[in-house]
Amino acid sequence: MKDLVKSFESLPKIAKIILAIPCLDIIWAIVRIIKGVAYKNAVTLIAGILWIIPGAIVCWLADLICAILGKDFFFMRGE
């Protein structure tokens, strides 16, 4: 699972931007869930679960801004 997370984190900037648009942002929520389980990080896991519903409404904007600026996505930092 760690390889899957690393492959998503190493995507090119344009791919991250495309995956951060409203309907596709659920992919980043799933990556957060996988990363939370793989690295045993409860905050990332809970954020991933909560990101699914609000992510479709508001949180996609935070992911989009982070992708454009080339920053880490919220609640996906660290190993």
Which helices and strands, and how do they pair?
Blueprint (H helix, E strand, L loop, with lengths): L1 H8 L3 H7 L6 H13 L3 H28 L10
Fold and architecture overview:
- This protein has 79 residues and is an all-alpha fold.
- The chain has one domain.
- The chain contains 4 helices and no strands.
- The chain has helices at residues 2-9, 13-19, 26-38, 42-69.
- The longest helix is centred in the C-terminal third of the chain and has 28 residues, at 42-69.
- The chain is globular and about 25 Å long.
Question: What's this, in brief?
Answer:
With 79 residues, the chain is mostly helical. The chain has helices at 2-9, 13-19, 26-38, 42-69. The two termini are 13 Å apart.
List keywords for this structure.
single chain; 79 residues; mainly alpha; globular
Beta-strand segment tally: 0
What percentage of the residues does DSSP assign to strands (E)? under 5%
The biggest beta sheet reads: none
Rg, alpha carbons: 11 Å
Question: H/E element string?
Answer: HHHH
Counted by DSSP, the helix tally is 4
Could you say which structural class the secondary elements and strand pairing correspond to? mainly alpha
Q: Which parts are unreliable, with pLDDT below 50 for 5 consecutive residues or more? A: none
Gap between N and C termini, in Å? 13 Å
Question: How many domains in all?
Answer: 1
Cα shape: globular
Mean pLDDT: 88
Q: What is the helix content?
A: over 70%
